[in-house]
Amino acid sequence: MEWTKGMLQELVGLKLSDLPLVVVSNREPYVHTYIGDEVHCQVPVSGLTMAVDPVMRACGGTWVAHGSGSADIDVCDDGGRVMVPPQDPRYTLRRVWLSREEQEGYYLGFSNEGMWPLCHMVFNRPTFDTSHWNMYKKVNQRFAEVVLEEVGDSSAFVFIQDYHFALLPRLLKAQNPRIITAQFWHIPWPNPEVFGVCPWQEEVLEGLLGNDLLGFHIRSHCDNFMGTVDKALECRIDYENSAISRNNKMTLVRPFPISVDFDQISQEAESEELQQEIERIRRYWGLTDEIVGLGIDRVDYTKGIPERLRGLDRFLTKHARYRGRLVFFQIGEPSRIRIRRYRDLNYEVEDLIEEINWKFGNRDWRPIIRLREHNSPFTLAAFRRLAHFCIVSSLHDGMNLVAKEFVASRADREGVLILSRFTGASRELTDALLVNPYSTDEMADAIKRAIDMPRNERVRRMTRMREVVADNGIYRWAGDIISTLTGIEPEEV
Length: 493
Ligand code: F6P
Prior knowledge:
Layout: H1 5-15, E1 21-24, E2 31-35, E3 38-42, H2 47-59, E4 62-66, H3 72-75, E5 81-84, E6 91-96, H4 100-120, H5 130-151, E7 156-161, H6 168-175, E8 179-184, H7 192-195, H8 201-208, E9 213-216, H9 219-232, E10 236-238, E11 243-246, E12 249-255, H10 262-269, H11 272-284, E13 291-296, H12 305-318, E14 326-331, H13 340-360, E15 368-371, H14 377-386, E16 389-392, H15 401-409, E17 416-420, H16 425-428, E18 433-435, H17 440-452, H18 455-471, H19 474-485
Helix pairs in contact: 1-19, 4-5, 5-6, 10-15, 11-14, 12-13, 12-17
6-O-phosphono-beta-D-fructofuranose binds next to helix 2.
């Protein structure tokens, strides 16, 4: 059964009508920025916000997030609230202001130098610093206060996003036990031995067990989480029902593979406006009959961007006849650049592109074009629709929504997806060309296979992948979480 926006709205009306909905995430879904004297509203590069925004548009409610844009404060009321999306206001964005020190300790520090590398296991050592941890605790407390301001003493459904807020559910419940909390962990969860190196693992786990429901993308992340709790804390684990009980509090642990708004993306891909955008891109880059390859990622060391570039290098080395015929667009903004590892990665990517373009390019052609500025979701959709193939080469990824967006954009049933086996998405999109991004030859061979693939095979594979994404879109993700939660009653006080 395909879940639609209307069905989700119906479910929310039926089951959550008396329960205000509050979403909490670090990243905000809309960022107001000054460009000169003008305020522009941008959609950030974030799978999380892209996925949850349609749910909030459908259900309404309040989204609490860090206000990070230069003009954010100027468009809000005194309480830090603004209605979004700007062109069609549907829900309230409640912004939380964080000082530079708070951002450094909580976001860059514990979240992105500690938890991020810890959970992704891509040979980048996590760093744990007591001052970061203290700031993380302080900011979690701050968000708890803001949510409680929104909710008061009443019952509410608070839907927490990601690894920035491991302590938040327990803090909320301590103040208002009538709140129901669900948390979705958007990144992988490693095995107990790996997670055990976190000096504050007990506190992190205790915090998460404040939730009524804790979601991961796939079953093995749930199993890893339960194994970690089993090793670290005194508790009762019911593996059969995937539930953990500690101090008379039960937390359900379930997989909910996140997705995209398939219908919206697919319909947009067929629109006249998108065709015009494709034509604009073609004209701008002087594209005629080239084979177009595509990579779209935040520049992050988990995304396997150097591995992908080495694969392209090997492909052009092995198959000289494609020189001059292939143009690969590597699109993505630098991210988290205050962290050294991210700055280094940017240089590495620049260097590799420079080297490949120098090695194979000529006056009229360069094989790789890097676009590092912000591109609107609409322009990205046009790139997805015009590419012959798209490479997602993450070294480890909870899900990866670029892969699903690519499939949703291919209303023409064309295009080949080359997809890392180490993404959650590879469990569902088995008709992609699945690769091990650590193997340069495998990457090169997959590129060759994608380019040479006969049309009927391309269409067959893409049709099947589209069925999978259509049947498991973002409304099913939200609907499944809410249906699981509705068995949970707010505690009577
Ligand atoms: O993958 C985890 C995640 O939080 C996503 O959900 C999001 O797309 C991405 O990281 C963005 O990170 P940031 O908000 O730090 O730029």
